[in-house]
Amino acid sequence: MSHPLPDPDTAREWLATMTLIRRFEERAGEMYARAKVGGFLHLSIGEEATIVGSARALRTSDYLISTYRSHGHALVRGTPPRNVMAELFGRVDGCSGGRGGSMHMFDLERRFMGGYGIVGGNLPIAAGIALASDYRGEDDVTLCVFGDGASNQGTFGETLNLAALWRLPVVFMVTNNQFGMGTALGRHSAVTDLQRKGESLGVPGVRCDGMDVLDTHAVVSEALRRVREERRPLLVEAVTYRFRGHSMADPEEYRTKEEVAQWRERDPIPAFGDLLEREGIVDAPEREQIDERSRAQVDEAVAFAEASPFPPPDSLYDDVYVLGEQVHGWYSVRTSPPQDGATAAQPPADGPGTASTGEIPQQITSALQAGEDA
Amino acid sequence: MTVMRYREALNAALREELARDERVILMGEDIGVFGGAFKVTAGLLEEFGERRVRDTPISENTIVGMGVGAAMVGLRPVVELMTINFALLAFDQIVNHAAHIHYMFGGQARVPLVVRMPQGAGHQLGPTHSHCLEAFFMHVPGLLVATPSTPADAKGLLKAAIRDENPVIFIEHESLYGQRGEVPAAEDHIQGFGEAAVRREGADVTIVGISRMALTAERAAQTLADEHGVRAEVIDPRTLRPLDLDTILRSVANTNRCVVVEEGWPHGGVGANLGALIAEQAFDDLDAPVRRVTGADVPMPYSKPLEDIAYPHEPQIVHAALEVLGQVPAGGAAVGNRGAARGAGGIGGASGAGRTGGQR
Q1: Which domains does chain A have, with CATH numbers?
Q2: Are both B121 and B244 inside the same structural domain?
Q3: Is B50 considered catalytic here?
Q4: Do B97 and A121 touch (CB under 8 A)?
């Protein structure tokens, strides 16, 4: 499919953002290997055109909600790379304050409504956000991104049905990267033509080439326009491929190197760069500059994350509750401050907990990492 | 004060909050045209329209999840689930999402959501409609949990729940919907969370009753006074998270004895937790071990005689109180197991431990 190019500045920005996501993810993987990043790390390398093409079809007031593979979604919405990297590092300046980690990025101000660690968990939430927009008479649309694996969850059927029934302004976008973790599409879904999977639920579907930023942008733009105007949800299937494993802890025994190599030939970033060069929008030196700028941004993000402190131990109980008239402090038990000998899990009734002193969280982290490496 | 039924008090709370705050919406299965499985929402669709009172498909996890999403961007949804057992279908959205979103996103998003649901046995609804599961929800940081036992509390706590910025699990009781009681007439009657009610004062033994068991405990206290000369203090915590432990500890400091009564299962239940808290924080005040009277450690059976002995009744509470007072021998087997029902006299026992489901 050929689509007209956007204006040159826009085209350059798309290329730059895809490049930034690529360089960011590569560096995140390195930082994981160096134990700067804990937990699971799901990289979106290979899926940059899907991310940028769809998110750039949004207005700034539209909502985007994503999955546990969400670094790129935070970046594309404008969350500074330093705050995304700091989140991976578990630091106070992380975009979720170091509470969420890789799977739980969030930026309310930019209407990035979160990465979610439960497969399919974000679909009902997306519909609820859309319900609120609709209820208030606002014409914002919610773009709900999830993977092919999530299309088998109960929430897929429940939420598509409800969104269609109530004519909610949601574009459901299934990022079909061919695998639910290590299980190939044909082995996890009876219907592999995922764009059709919402039909019986009243949600028509369309497909886009998720390796082509122009096609993704065109298809999602049209879907958003229709949903905004017609007040009924649509399903978009973006066909893409993740070049790396499901997470960093994935030996990739479920697919062949040849298959990965074939998809890598369709790498969306050089493809788009080549196109822009052919069209005279960028030249080779400018492409190089874009890449260098991305690397510099990521360098800066890593330095920032390194310098950002870990959350202090006495912040452990912060933000469990919104404090107010009913909840005056963190507590499950309203009682006088515990006497001497109270355990760590019993902070005083009316203030943030003093869970422990010293460097225990870091010690625990180190111990876990040591165990994992062994 | 006006006298109204528990369901009417809930209905009044919903009506007043709908009228007061445009952000409040109701969602649930058959809450509109049907008027609610227990008629709590009767008349609200007619008064406020389909935009605000929304009948949903049978999709518990998604209904609650939509409530989460709508709450995150500024609405104040009140979701009704038809029974607490159905809430288990929504456990993912309640625990992984509603309870954790404020924390896991570093305090950026709030989830001012109320999820209402009734619990409780007594209507022969068997093992998927009758349980008391407050202990499940009480376990979760990030949730508030209310268990109102009177019409006044039903109204006051529900209004407080709707106005709160945190997700609230609001647990009603099927057997209480028809109960009458005095309710303050004022529209701003609010019952704050974390404030236990002392339903009856007494110096001999503290009885803590959860949900409907607060009422059963009050009747037991009357029997203790009339027939045994025992002055029992009855406490209804009203909310389990936050839990007003201060009031309970103050009472135990005075009575030195405590019985906790709940309909839920014994293992890891509300009483287990309260017993631990009292032992940790008031051990020296105790003259006897804390006793629990609980539901039997079984799925709720359908057959009436079995259902009857599977949740606590007044005679068991009386017996447990006399036991901690040393007025009857401590007997029976461990909490809620098969031996308890058999050893204590089995089916149809008339008094004391005779009808135990899970005494001691």
Answers
A1: 8-307 (3.40.50.970), 313-374 (no CATH)
A2: no
A3: no
A4: yes
